[in-house]
């Protein structure tokens, strides 16, 4: 990806469930942002534009990017000189107790099965929580109160997905909710399955094009 985008990519490690249940991964992502703002690594200090940062994640990473963004949206001053311009939620992993049409239609999907998705939530949500917890279901209570901070920060949010991914309906619901709340949401949904870009080069190139356009237009808006 780094070879195709005008960006420096920082890949963030995070603690895994079930040993470390959520919100551990969100805490680790926020900690990484604070590390970046004070890091003295040459490749950051000399080559990175700290005023044009995007939080991106795929699948579980998309969920983490979303919740990390919510956590820091009201504290942007604390991150300076790092400035976040937007979120990129690619094939973001969300869930809920009620079944969506795509979950029922694709319950035996070879990449992500419905039973497998349920089991991952059982292992990662706080003890005693169900899939309608805010960490899993961003639609609960008509969305997080922190979305107002995201709107005021002026961030753009790209939500991407594929129509043969059992998670697609939840991603579409999220994109629609963000737009209804007045956030600067951009949706890009196409053909394919969960994490198709890892297996099909043409789809990876298509994604890189979408990302490059989103990043360049977002930066142009801010500058």
TrEMBL record:
GO terms for molecular function: hydrolase activity. Pfam families: Abhydrolase_3. Residues 4-191 form the Alpha/beta hydrolase fold-3 domain. SUPFAM superfamilies: alpha/beta-Hydrolases. InterPro entries: AB_hydrolase_3, AB_hydrolase_fold, Carboxylest/Gibb_receptor. PANTHER family: ARYLACETAMIDE DEACETYLASE, CARBOXYLESTERASE 120-RELATED. Belongs to the 'GDXG' lipolytic enzyme family. This is Carboxyesterase 20.
């Amino acid at each position: 990806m780094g070879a195709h985008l005008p960006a420096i990519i920082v890949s963030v490690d995070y603690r895994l469930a079930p040993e470390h249940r959520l919100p551990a991964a969100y805490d680790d992502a926020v900690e990484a942002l604070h590390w970046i703002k004070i890091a003295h690594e040459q490749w950051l200090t000399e080559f990175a534009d700290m005023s044009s940062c995007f939080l991106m994640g795929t699948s579980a990473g998309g969920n983490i990017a979303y919740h990390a963004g919510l956590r820091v949206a009201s504290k942007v001053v604390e991150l300076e000189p790092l400035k976040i311009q937007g979120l990129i939620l690619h094939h973001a992993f969300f869930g809920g107790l009620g079944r969506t049409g795509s979950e029922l239609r694709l319950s035996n999907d070879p990449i992500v099965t419905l039973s497998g998705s349920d089991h991952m939530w059982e292992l990662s949500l706080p003890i005693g929580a169900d899939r309608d917890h805010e960490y899993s279901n961003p639609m609960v209570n008509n969305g997080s109160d922190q979305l107002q901070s995201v709107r005021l920060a002026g961030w753009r949010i790209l939500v991407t997905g594929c129509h043969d991914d059992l998670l697609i309906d939840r991603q579409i619901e999220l994109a629609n909710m963000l737009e209804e709340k007045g956030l600067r949401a951009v949706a890009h949904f196409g053909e394919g399955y969960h994490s198709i870009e890892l297996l099909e080069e043409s789809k990876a190139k298509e994604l890189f094009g979408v990302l490059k356009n989103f990043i360049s237009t977002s930066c142009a808006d801010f500058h």
